[in-house]
Structure formats: C-alpha cells, structure tokens
Amino acid sequence: MAAQTAPPATSQAPPPRSGTAAPRRGGRRTARRARSAIGAHPWAAACFLLPALVVLGALVVYPISWTAVRSLFGADGFTHFVGLGNYTSVFHDPQTLTALRNNALWVVVAPSVATGLGLIFAVLTERVRWGTAFKLVVFMPMAISMLAAGIIFRLVYDQDPGKGVANAVVVGVHDTFAKASAYPGAKPRIGGGLAPSGGGYVTTATIAPGTTAAALPLVGIPPATLSGARQAAVPSHCPTGAVCGTVWLDFTPGGGGTPGRIDPGERALAGVQVQAVRGGHTVATATSGRDGTFVLPAGTLGTGPVQLKLPAANFTAQFQGVTWLGPTLVTWSIIGAYVWMWTGFAMVLIAAGLAGVPRELLEAARMDGANEWQVFRRITVPLLAPTLVVVLVTLVINVLKIFDLVYVIAPGSTQQDANVLALQLYLASFGGGNDQGVGSALGVLLLVLVLPAVFFNIRRFRKERTR
Question: If I label 14, which of 184, 253, 360, 399 is the partner at 20 to 30 A Cα–Cα?
Fold first, then answer.
C-alpha cells in the first residue's frame, strides 16, 4: 500500500484582528516620494516657497522683531535705551494690571460659554425640522463686523428703557411684579405743614380725630401727567372720630390761587397712601380716592392726636433698569455681546463634527438602556472632544486679542474698568499716552500670552497628521 503524501503546507498570514485598521502604505509611499522629489530639486521647492516666505517675513516676522526691539527703548524713539524698563513699568501700572485681570476673565468665561452654547444648539437642533433655519439665525451675527456689533450693543445696553432693549425688558418684568410709585419726585409745598421723614413726609402738627379737612398739599409734579385727574375736593362727610383730608397738587394753571387751599383747577392726587402715626407706630392706613380725599376710620385710630405721614413709597423714582455699562457690569456685558457673536461659529463647527459621529454607537447605547443624558455625556461629548478643543483654542486666541467691542461698547467713564491688553496697547501708544516703547512692551506681552495656545494647536495638528 502506497504511503499517502500530505499536501504541502502553505503559509498564510493570520487574519487581522477585529477593530485593527490595515496600515495605509499608499499614503506613506506618496509622502516618501514627495520628500525625495524635494530633496532632488531643492531650488524648485525654494522658488515655490519664496513668495510665501517673503509675505510671511514682511507681515509677521519683521513686525514682531521690530516690536521686540522697540520695546527696549523709551518714548522718544531710539535715542534712549531703557532695556527692560518698559516691562517693569507695565507690571507696575494699575491700568495694565486691570487689563490683565480682565483678560483672564475673558479667557475663562467667553470661550467656555460660547463653546457650551454652540454644543447645546448643535445637539438640540439635530433632530428638528427647523434646525437649519435656527442655525442660520444663530450664525448671522458672524456676518456683522465687531464695530457694527459694538454699536448695536451700545444701544442695547442704553440706560434709558425707551432706547435700550435690555433695560426695556428688565423694567417691564420689574413693573409686572413690583408696582411703581404713584408720584415720583413730588414734594410738599413750603409752609404746607409737611416735613421730610425717612424719604417720605409727615405733618409737623398733630391732628385730633374728628378733623374733617386735613390738608396735604404737594408740588413738584408736572401738570401734564395729571391731565385726566379730577378737580381736588374737600371731604363732604367725615365719620365721627375719623380723620379726613385731601391730597392734591397745590398749583393753579395760569397762576393765582392761595397756597395751602384747594382752588379751582387744582388737580387731585389719587392713589396716595396716607398713614396715621402715633408714638412712631402706624395705627391706620388709607389711600386717597379719585378726588384726592381720604378717610382714616375711627375704629383703628384709637384716642389721642396723631400725625399724618406720606410714606416714601409714594415718591420714590421709578425703576430705570440696570446700569449695564457701569463699573461693576461693563466687562460682563461686553462678554455677553461677544458670546452673541461667536456662538454661531462654535455651533457650526460642532455641528460639522457631530455629522461625522457614527450613529451606530449612539443607537447601540440607547439599545443598552442609556438615556439621552448618558448618551450625550459618555458618547457624544467624548467623540466630539477634538472638535471642541479646536473651537475652544480658537476662541481663546481670539479673546486674547479682543479690542473692538471693548473700545466701542464701554463708555469713557468706565472704559478703564473694562480695559484689556489690546485696548491698553492702543491707549499707551496712540490714545493719549504717546509712549510707543510701553506700547511695544504690551505687544510683546500679548504675543507671549498667545504663543501657548498657538503651540498647542501646532502640536495637535502634528499628532493628527501622524495618525
């Protein structure tokens, strides 16, 4: 019996493991060919790079070098060498320290808020039919220049509620829940028997219960605001033991009349709160009617004379809104304007990154029982991390150089409170300081602060190329 021979063994490469990508040899081979071609023809490569290098040197390298050299000389040019004296004066200048503090606030708050809102908008609008229209509206501010946006928000933050949208909204909400004072700015007529007391007014003499015509004359109210008010009147009947009287505008149109007495044509002040005070305690309260009369009932007055008081709530000025551009809120208000402009930029980039997220991973997580918040936090955000880093670093570089919005929005009285490094550089060099040595030192300082973000971006780009 013939022995059977086994078939020759063939060597087979083991199949690649699941999830392991095959090496991209074509891309590496192309890169090697390109490097060898450049090595063989260095002059051809230099000719192609020369225009770009000339432009780069003229617009970047030369200005940076000149600024660094200029920062070592005084304000009078190159005749006075001061070395690092400009840098010393920069860090001892209170305005520069304020600018550094504000720049730190900008770097921490503005990019984070803009990126966070962009992420939220990109995720929430992914599933709605009108998502494209919403993204268009949010992105539209990017088409507006910083100067135009600054002018817009200078009007938005205007103190007058009739002009500023922000204060119009705030005043509208405030007046919905808190009633405005009846007659702001009103004051007693001289010799009318009223004296100031805690923001309001109180009668100088005591009044015994049963008084039928306690006179409380006021002035300081524009008659035009009382065009629909009734003629002031004396109480026609006062109950026994009560205190009655009239609150009115003691001013006769056209002149004439007797001070402290109700004359024809003098208007009633309706809705004024009147209190009866005894021993520093309020014992009764009444409100004047449409003809200005009021009645403090006898049952609450007790016995003994009282003083009549008009509380300060009748005369406090109406709420005029928030001082958005005051020393406290000016920086936060400008950051709000910046976020309004740049949230659309963050949203569009994040939405582009979101479009590349594998839907299978999201659906698999939902099939495993994960809720939407868990899917967002554990899958969507980690997969979008490279895009979020790009957006965040870009906005950090952008806010370090912020100038236009601060210069346009902040009024002169609070410009120093909103100061940033780029604005301080301008003010020191051209805005009245006329010291280009200090201005150049500020420029070098600003460059040093921007360089870490630039190097981080370059390092990230190189890592992505080697993947």
Answer: 360
